[in-house]
Write a structure and sequence with these properties.
Largest sheet: 2 strands, antiparallel
Helix content: 40-55%
Radius of gyration: 25 Å
Number of strands: 2
Distance between the termini: 41 Å
Number of helices: 6
Shape: elongated
Amino acid sequence: MTNGEQHDRNPYQQPQQSGQQQPSGQPYPQPYPQYQQQLPIPRDESGAPPLWAPWYGAGFLDAFTRFWKKYARFDGRASRSEFWWWYLANAIVVVVLLGAYVASLIVWVSDATTTDEYGTTTSTGGFPGVAFLFLGLLGLWGLATFIPSLALGWRRVHDAGLAGPFWLISFAAGVAGIVFGCLEPSPAGAQYDQPDAPRPPA
């Protein structure tokens, strides 16, 4: 088992336990209530679970495409790998667009300003259109990803066994989003699943 799988393991895979018994031969009573064991989540030929289920151990591209497929889906759960791979992808896009915007401004400033022999600096052109383009793309990206990012965080706290509105705390305290993203999956989160009804045969 890899480190990634250990940190994002399926909570329904129960480790094998050695049966400890009392001297009388009866097993020791369990000190805590046990969740009823859930049925295993079905997977398709590629190994992907259905959209209503969390994907433990999802890869980068799988998490990225799944984010868009579950655009505004607030039911169900999201694994830690689904959550963190998406935020890495989002950070890459934002850094690229923001970097391109800043670079276009630097190029414009160096090309559009002149300094005469008296040290007076003058501008010879208007604001560059390419900078507007990257700034507009950055704004559109933020608008396009706001709802699905909210839904992803909502599903992440579900996976930890918490109610979705807990994710709203991250808007007031950003560190809360990091904490929620790191929480262990809990079998109690299965209460938030809404399995898709099977399609009738054609």
